[in-house]
Amino acid sequence: MTRLATDYLAFLEAIAEAKIGAVLGRSADEARPLAAEGWRAGRSLRAIRVNLDAADAFTRTALAQDPEALASVLAGLDTPRAVAGRLAAGPDSLGDLAGDPRQRVRVLLLRDAVRSARAVSEPVLSEVLGVTVGFNSRDGD
User: Fold this and answer.
1) Which of 10, 74, 79, 86 is the most exposed place for a label (fewest CB within 10 A)?
2) Can you point out the beta strands (E) in the chain?
3) 125-140 burial, b for 16+ CB within 10 Å, e for fewer?
4) Which of 103, 12, 104 is nearest to 56 (CA)?
């Protein structure tokens, strides 16, 4: 269970940092649209939505025995799932949105919502599953 909880949190971190943050760059001028997963196919936002759906499914399974904890973590996932859904429904790709100064804030909101979902999840998973979240491959050496 420790490994599953650790990997789940690393998964959310990877979505926020590698899949969204890498595309954002430091500013709209420094956005890196080609860093987006599946940028050629225009499926970057769809991939993020699928990832968030998988996080939802894991949460429902891992926390099924504690309805209050389940509701808490699912509430944390609701915002990034809703934001990703709205972004994916539009005609622009993740890279286009990140590079447009007026639309960039929407991508920042998505990244921050995923970070928030991770922050909500960590203490709940630790407590309910009775595990200490360990290091993951993204933590360095």
Assistant:
1) 86
2) none
3) beebbeeebeebeeee
4) 12
CA-CA-CA-CA dihedral for 101, 98, 25, 109, to nearest 10 = 90
C-alpha count within 13 angstroms, C-beta hemisphere, residue 124? 24
Interatomic CA distance for residues 58 and 119, integer angstroms: 16
The pTM of this model reads 0.90
Helix, strand, coil shares, percent, the chain, to 5: 75, 0, 25
The Cα-based distances of 3 to 128, 132, 135 in angstroms read 14, 9, 9
Nearest to 77 by CA among 55, 58, 61: 55
> What is the C-alpha separation between 137 and 110, in angstroms, rounded?
23
Residues 54-70: pLDDT tens digits? 999 999 999 999 999 99
Structure tokens at 124: 């709940």
- The pLDDT tens digits of the residues spanning 5-44 come to 999 999 999 999 999 999 999 888 999 999 988 888 888 9
Could you give the CA distance from residue 21 to residue 134 in angstroms, rounded to a whole number? Answer: 23
